[in-house]
Design goal:
The strands form 4 sheets. A 7-stranded mixed beta sheet has the order 3-4-5-6-7-8-9, sandwiched between helices. 30% of the residues lie in helices and 26% in strands. The chain folds into 2 domains: 5-149, Fructose-1,6-Bisphosphatase, Chain A, domain 1 (2-Layer Sandwich), CATH 3.30.540.10; 161-265, D-Maltodextrin-Binding Protein, domain 2. Helix 1 (5-27) runs antiparallel to helix 2 (45-61) and helix 6 packs parallel to helix 7. The chain is of the alpha+beta class and 274 residues long.
């Protein structure tokens, strides 16, 4: 599918509208109405309000494309496995961080075609910052009225590598293995902001071994890939979507300069239990 710039801009408008709605709960301190889902993950009224805005916005411009959202209904695999193209959305990625008022939460909207993300938009409400990219549109960042192209960082041999992670996944074994070849530095982010750091050349590696839902990664994958990076599963193949009943990703790794990083990382048993 060929994505037009004007179409991508329409999706950005929808993501921003959802973000503005989320900020009403953040800034105006509207009741969050916190509940917990069957997997014990929290959901708030802000999540649901953002979902409703995105659902209405996407239906208005693409009425024939189905929607799979974290806050939408469960859709049986027998039904969604027939989809060639669909929207994959996390209306408020980082709900726990939102509740804790850390600021590290985003709106994620991705378009999936043939099991691959072909468009991704990540909006950071507190920064009024957009990250976006599509299969026919190089990734870019939009902030304070200016648009900047995104490009992963080109590495020199033996250059310091920046690993981005949550504080729950420190990957100490991976750090030790890489440090035998390159100096390393750790940085920490929540939600899809880890993909954003790689896409703008502020980090090089993001390894995820803990389970994470597909709507948490699709938009970020599109942005990283269209900024020159890659997102691979444990078989060293591009991460794919909607291929099984459970909407959980396998372990995966996002890389900036894959030409420099892949030969190094393929020597390291990243996905073994450590």
């Amino acid at each position: 599918m060929n994505i037009e710039t004007s179409f991508l801009q329409e999706i950005i408008v929808i993501a921003k509208a959802a973000g503005i709605e989320i900020l009403k709960y953040h800034n105006e301190k509207l009741p969050l109405g916190i509940k917990h889902k069957h997997d014990d993950s929290p959901v708030t009224l802000a999540d649901l309000a953002a979902h409703n805005i995105i659902k209405a916005g996407l239906a208005a411009i693409t009425p024939d494309i189905p929607l799979l959202s974290e806050e939408g209904p469960d859709i049986p695999f027998e039904q969604r496995s027939q989809w060639q193209t669909y929207w994959l959305v996390d209306p408020l990625d980082g709900t726990r961080e939102f509740i804790l008022n850390s600021g590290q939460f985003t709106v994620n909207i991705a378009l999936i075609h043939d099991h691959r993300p072909i468009l991704g938009v990540i909006y950071v409400p507190l920064k009024d910052r957009v990250y976006a990219g599509a299969s026919s549109i190089p990734s870019f960042k939009e902030e304070e009225g200016s648009v900047q192209p995104l490009k992963v960082r080109a590495l020199k041999p033996n250059e310091e590598l920046i690993i981005v992670s949550t504080r729950r996944e420190l990957h100490e074994q991976l750090q030790r293995e890489i440090a035998l070849h390159n100096p390393i530095r750790m940085t920490y982010r929540s939600s899809s902001l880890k993909f954003c750091l790689i896409s703008e050349g502020r980090a090089d590696i993001y390894l995820r071994k803990e389970p994470i839902q597909e709507w948490d990664t699709a938009a970020g994958q599109s942005i990283v890939e269209n900024a020159g990076g890659i997102v691979l599963d444990s078989n060293w193949e591009a991460l794919r979507y909607n291929t099984k009943p459970l909407l959980l990703n396998p372990p995966f790794i996002a890389l900036g300069d894959s030409k420099q990083l892949l030969p190094l990382l393929k020597k390291i048993p990243m996905f073994e239990e450590i």
